[in-house]
Design brief:
alpha+beta, 5-stranded antiparallel β-sheet, DUF3888, signal
């Protein structure tokens, strides 16, 4: 009988502590959501950017960690409301330990497919 009371008290004590220690996972902040969407958008444009950069400058490389979306503009009119013009600035370099070659700005048209409108730099 004594063991039963001790076991019951132990179970109640442990489950009571578990209930107070559990808490809801924190919700991501607006800035965190922004960076996730920002990174996802850069990742989706990456194959097209790589093709444009390799065509114009075959020896240059770039990375997405320092790419900047300069502007994102919804194009009204036409069949879809999901047409955008996006300007992205990529910092290119040649070799891993060399200084940057300079920025390269690529203008994309995003609708049913991604097209490159202009490469500056």
């Amino acid at each position: 009988m004594k063991r039963f009371i001790v076991a019951t008290a132990l179970v109640l004590c442990l489950t009571g502590r578990m209930a107070t220690c559990t808490e809801a996972a924190p919700k991501p902040s607006i800035t965190q959501k922004h960076t996730d969407f920002y990174d996802a958008f850069l990742m989706l444009l990456n194959p097209h950017a790589e093709k444009a950069i390799r065509t114009k400058y075959p020896d240059r490389s770039y990375s997405l960690w320092n790419a900047n979306i300069l502007s994102l503009k919804r194009v009204s009119g036409g069949f879809s409301n999901y047409d955008f013009v996006v300007k992205v600035k990529y910092h290119t370099f040649t070799g891993p330990h060399n200084p940057p070659e300079g920025p390269l700005v690529i203008t994309f048209s995003v609708s049913n497919e991604v097209k490159i409108l202009k490469v500056e730099g």
